[in-house]
Prior knowledge:
Shape: globular
Structural class: mainly alpha
Number of strands: 0
Largest sheet: none
Distance between the termini: 30 Å
Oligomer: single chain
Number of domains: 2
Strand content: under 5%
Order of helices and strands: HHHH
Helix content: 40-55%
Number of helices: 4
Amino acid sequence: MTDNGSAYRSRRFAKALRLLAVRHIFPRPYTPKTNGKAERFIQALLREWAYGLVHPSAQARNTDLPRWLDWFNTSRPHSALDGLSPIKRVNNLMRTHT
Length: 98
């Protein structure tokens, strides 16, 4: 699911999704609750990574993204998940992690 931005409505993006065999879902326009998780992630990404950390250059910021995403998904406590990280929450749901 993406938002309804023009980049996600382009033929090029649609072709990339087809090549990856990914089904594309659009939220209803002007319904932010439909896309709330994505919007919340983007807010965190901007606040905590893009502008929250000091990077000497745009290249250094881009290089740091995989590290930040790993931390966000495996170590960072999320209040909506009772303080668990997403990976711990998924594992707990699957009963593969205590």
